[in-house]
Amino acid sequence: MDVKKTPSEAEVSRDLVARILSGDQRAEHEMVERYQRGLSVMLFNRSRDRDLANDIAQDTWLLVLQKIRSNDLRDQSKLAAFIIQIAKNQLIMRQRGQNRYQHVSEDEAGEIADTGLTPETAVANHQLGQCVAALMQELTVDRDRELLRRFYLLGDDKHTLCDELELSPAHFDRVLYRARERFKTLWQESNAKM
């Protein structure tokens, strides 16, 4: 029995880039199909604006294709990270009110720092975020919801929260513990239903 090995993400990336460099337009379409969903999810999560996310995705594909066709992609095995980083930069430029078609150098695109975030991982992270948000809404104690959201999701400082919620540091720890336990119970109940 001959078992065919599934190519790694790096192998797929190198193959797509090589085919695009050779003028294969099908490879361009395959690249977009492969990474579009993850790109769209990431952009929407960062912008919370579907139209803006779609515009930035179009700009991103134009820049990515331009850089690949001019053989400017240094590490062809990191195509997904390259696409995501260009998209992030395009979104930042748009949010700063800069020209959305401004050229981005390879160094600015941050290709060197591969986050390892594939489009599939971005989708999984988005789905997990939606699940957590839904469970947070099920918490019956408003202070639990506020404390968990601000401390864990927004990264607010413990001392700031103590001052605003009029809690001593020791009392804060107890309240946070109880909030986590209530959320943990909801999480376990949710997973048991699946």
From TrEMBL:
UniProt keyword Transcription present: yes
GO molecular function, one term: sigma factor activity
Region forming the signal peptide: none
GO biological process: DNA-templated transcription initiation
Record Pfam families: Sigma70_r2
Residues in RNA polymerase sigma-70 region domain copies: 31-100
UniProt name for this protein: RNA polymerase sigma-70 region 2 domain-containing protein
NCBIfam families cross-referenced by the UniProt entry: sigma70-ECF
The keyword Lipid biosynthesis is annotated on this UniProt entry: no
Organism: Arenicella chitinivorans
Keywords (A to Z) from UniProt: Sigma factor, Transcription, Transcription regulation
